[in-house]
Every structure is written in structure tokens, then in C-alpha cells.
Amino acid sequence: MGSSTPVEITALEESFRRFAIHGDTRATGKEMHGKNWSKLCKDCGVIDGKNVTLTDVDIVFSKVKKKSCRTIVFEEFKVALGELARKKYKEKTGEDAEAEVFKLIEGKAPVIAGVTRAVASPTVSRLTDTTKFTGSHKERFDETGRGKGKAGRVDLVDTSGYVSGYKHRGTSKGKLHTTIFL
């Protein structure tokens, strides 16, 4: 093999890879599909809603990818960014515009949607207030409002052999009563 120098990965390529594998466990990071391309443009602020819209991003993706492919490689990615850069920074030269867009993306990673905070609406509060529960639902919680788990949900099976609610349960003392029909 010899002492081959490792290929330098640019910050831009690093971001490309991070977005390329986002949400896809099988992804190699060498190609990016349209959904992640759109996410990258959104998360990194390439889409501004004025000069560059989601539609522009989709059109450019379709334009740069190979006909039979559903993904773009890093080189095509750079071409696509170049196209968007010229739309976004109309007043700059092509190269300057590209440099600006690259700066938006370099070193970035996909924004993972934050955990949504629970909204304490009166409706939800009412539905989750165990003190207001009635009937069999009431049985599912102890006095403190904590759930009893399975014991609160499952009717524990009575194996005594008596019909539930039988008044004289446990009084037969082993006698067997038989009625004979003639």
C-alpha cells in the first residue's frame, strides 16, 4: 500500500455526509437523496423563502442528478449549491455567491426536531386528573394518583369455583347437594 496520505475531507463534504446519512441506517454518506437535500437547504438557511424556495431546491436537485438516479453525489451537490447560490446572492459573482452558500453549510449537521413540550391545556389536565376518574377507571390508581399497573387493569381470576357474587360462598362445608329429576 505504501504511505498514502489520507484524503482531506472538507468541512463542506463533512456536512454533505452528515446530511446524506440522516435518517437512513443503510446510507454510506456518498449519495444524498432529495429529502435530505431539502433538509440541508432548510436547516442551513439556504432556503430563505424569497430568492430561494423549497420549489427551487427541488428543481435544482432534479436538474443536477443523473436521469436514472434518485440521489446526488458530492460533485453534483456542489453544482446544485452553485445554482442556488446564484439565485440567493444575485448581487455577487458566481464564485463569491458559492463561497457564501458553502459557508452556510460547512460544519453543519442535521437539526433533529426538538422534543415537543407538553402543553398544559385545560382539556388535557382534566383528562389526566385521576381524582376525577369514576367507575372501573378509578380502580386503576392508588390514593396518590399513581397507576397500579396491571393489577389496576386486569380482573384477577377467582379460582374458588363459586359464581362471582354468590352470597353463601365458603359455607357448603364440603356437602354435595344433588337434585334428581325423575
UniProtKB/TrEMBL annotation:
GO molecular function: tubulin binding
Residues making up the signal peptide according to the UniProt record: none
Compartment(s) of residence: Cytoplasm
Pfam annotation, one family: p25-alpha
GO cellular component, one term: microtubule
Domain of life: Eukaryota
GO biological process, one term: positive regulation of protein polymerization
Transmembrane segment boundaries: none
Location (main, coarse): cytoplasm
Keywords associated with the record: Cytoplasm
Family of the protein in this entry: Belongs to the TPPP family.
Name by which UniProt lists this protein: Tubulin polymerization promoting protein
